[in-house]
Amino acid sequence: MSDSPNNPNPITSQFGQKSPNYLKGLNPEQREAVTSIDGPLLVLAGAGTGKTRVLTTRIAHILASHLAESSQILSVTFTNKAALEMKQRIGKLIGISVEGMPWMGTFHSIGAKILRRHAELVGLKPNFTILDTDDQIRLIKQLLTAEHIDEKRWPARQFASIMDGWKNRGLLPSDVKSSHAGMFANGLGDKLYADYQQRLTSLNAADFGDLLLLCIRLFRENPDILAQYHSRFKYMLVDEYQDSNVAQYLWLRLLAQGKPAHLANICVVGDDDQSIYGWRGAEVDNILRFEKDFPGAKTIKLERNYRSTGNILAAASSVISNNEGRLGKTLHTDDEKGEKLQVTSLWDSEEEARHTAEQIEQLQRNGQDLNSMAILVRTSAQMREFEEVFIKLGINYRVIGGAKFYERREIRDALAYLRLTHQQSFDLALERIINVPKRGLGTTTVKFIHETARAQNIPMMQAIRMLIETEELGAKQRNTLSFLISQFDDWSARATTTSPFELAGAIFDESGYTAMWKDEKTADAPGRLENLKELVNFMQDFETLAEFLEHISLVLDRANNDNSNAVSIMTLHAAKGLEFNNIFLPGWEEGLFPSQRSLDESGNKGLEEERRLAYVGITRAKKKAFISLAQNRRIHGFWKTALPSRFLDELPPAAVEVTDTGSSFGAHNYGGSNSNKNSASRYDKKDALDDVYETPGWKRMRANSPKTIDGEFTKNHEHTSTGFRITQQVTHLKFGIGTITSIEGKKLTINFDRVGRKKVLDSFVKG
Predict the structure, then answer these.
(1) Which fold has domain 406-554?
(2) Is the model's pLDDT at 335 over the cut of 60?
(3) Catalytic residues
């Protein structure tokens, strides 16, 4: 039988039906990955190289060649959706229904199936319950109370996160060392973990992490059971292997031990350059050491990309080549080079958002659908400025993997505090935050306040003022409510004399709301804090709290919920697996991307994962990629000069075009043929901030001609036709007193005492 696409002899399936020639159309590397079915195999599949096709065709080949029954194939995916799609594809390839593939699914779904078959051997019954997060937290709180541990100091969610980390590393309570246990409640972590597992057993329950952890224990303690699965599974296939954690790795290794390592029929497919989930336990080392785990393993690299243009692939390959922890491959395409990546330096993050919106509108005018465009940000806090601009301009958008900025829980809570401060009769706001953070006010108390207000036909806040003077409520509730009333009275009084920016920070701190998220040791808590900071920073642009709240109301009222044709906004992490014709990558600045937090917490390992994020972001683009950075970004309430991301240094000159808009606030002449003109004076050596830009990346970003990464400084002559002069002290109607640092025609760059550096028109300035 020939595998050549030119010899379309059909293969007869085990069901007696003639299947289509499923090998036709595969490139040589794909065909080799499909037909190399004996022994261990590592398929390094770069972005857009057809890995899903290889996986499904490989399974179809095994079935159609009578090498195994469908029940003898273990196929592990990372989502149930992926498993369903694979079944459908296999059915189309070989013309049969494969619903009978019982061992195709996620790690945890397959682990649960195995556990239910042998539950008694790990102390459970086959009908055990799988706890959800809320039940898990409730159980941990009970254990904390029993040990007299202060839950405010040692939050239940924090311990749940720590315990999940232990389980992801395959650690049973007996495996947790004192150093690990010391992370929680002064060394009581190991005891709490053991008590938690005992309590689960008594409840006939398991949590999500147990589905693999208890399987590992089952296999280790019962070699005969493990031997049954060795006999059952003739072939093992694993998708997205670079995202597997330690527990998943151990589970797979145990199942693969039925044969000597060099004979194990295990095929793993993945891309070490797309391992971006280290923060949730993924270990890129799993894929890097596959050839050591299975000596003699065959490695096939899928490098022919069917998604992106040559310039996009060249840029992605150039960046990722700087990582040391990788097996190495270079993407290429048979298609044209396409347009160069556009790298644009903007004055600040607000201008970056406006510039991106104008590029999107231009693409629309050129016939591109909004559905073909996506903005990929490093942190969700970056989304607000883009959402604001899109709403103002009437550009439809959708947020993938999360709520829109003003629909996020933490933002709605924050706005409720601010609205109630401005208008204490706003009952809806009070109902939302009366017990956020927890104040010990149960539903019965809140219901009684609500009923009292309705009976008296008065706002709830006024009803509270009445109730704290009587004895209908307990003393504890009255004291809590009295303190809450005094807080809002104080905030309302300060609203008339304090800026919204300062007031909001005080409200969130004094109410305990900020501390609540700091104590919430979950994966999304840092992002929620960043979103809060972004909201507070934005409030600097408003003179009064009333002005800010009116703006928010108008924004929310104008938000377009028609997502039939819309720009997608998402984080880089959420973008993995997706593709768009046009990709926008904003915020390529040091500290933001790569993330300073990643560098601080994980050093070079964190940097390499950030670089893999850059690789993932670039390779989402099919036709065009737009990278941007802001020269100034507001951080913790202060405008700070941003330095270009080191990843910009790693882009290949031949594949990139650099522009510097040189535009002021409010200007709309972005990206034109004169975009580089009149912009050099901001980099003049006389500028007091110039020294901080003496890095290779910044030099290349401010180059004027030619428009490539490589270039030299080009200075423009200063224009002084406005009548102002450099170093002159002036007053701006909005920003106050400042000193002129550079002049460009009628545009002045001024270092303001109160708000930092801004670029303004001379007509708004007085000498």
Answers:
(1) PCRA; domain 4 (1.10.486)
(2) yes
(3) 51-52, 239-240, 274, 620
